[in-house]
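Researcher: I'd like a structural prediction for the single chain below. Treat it as a standalone chain; there are no partners to consider.
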Amino acid sequence: MNQRITVAINREYGSGGKNIGMMLSENLGIPYYDKDILKLAADESGINEALFRKHDEDADTGLFKIAGPIYRGELLTPGSRDFTSEKNLFNYQAKIIKGLSDTESCIIVGRCADFILKGRPNVVSVFICAPKEYLMEQAAKRKSLTGRDLDRYIDKINRNRSEYYTRYTGQVWSDVHHYDLCLDSSKLTAEKCVELIKGYMKVRFDGLEF
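Model: Treating it as a single chain, here is the predicted structure.
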């Protein structure tokens, strides 16, 4: 691309949002970031990567409470008693996300990237969702669960993602007002979702070339 643009994607479990992000990355020839950010944050901070991974696992398993410190952009110094706190682990991930957006075009999935980069003119925020029936159909291809157990698993993952988002942003994860694009992947193939995101980018950013 001839302009530096960050695409920040949030997605419901089973919607295919991760796959769409990876396909968009390959299509545009720009980097894709997800868990890679944990290692980058560890390298930047000097904090053991295992602590970042535990923080990530806690988010996946719903061990966070809703109440928590909303991200304000601060970083705690190594001498601080809370240097390795959950808050500061998030802060360092946010620093990496900002740095990536400052220096290259990229796709970032999850990690509140849309909120961290809010207000930047070069950011496109996307939410990928789908009806429960579709989420269950797609999730069944990955999980050895069926019926009510699968339904509960999907609800748990999406609730955990929502609570993590609210903890650090103070906002509602699924609120359409936070996003430039909200796509129902049950009505579009992944390829068409990629083309739709690219189409939006081309209309929004004058002179953009892929």
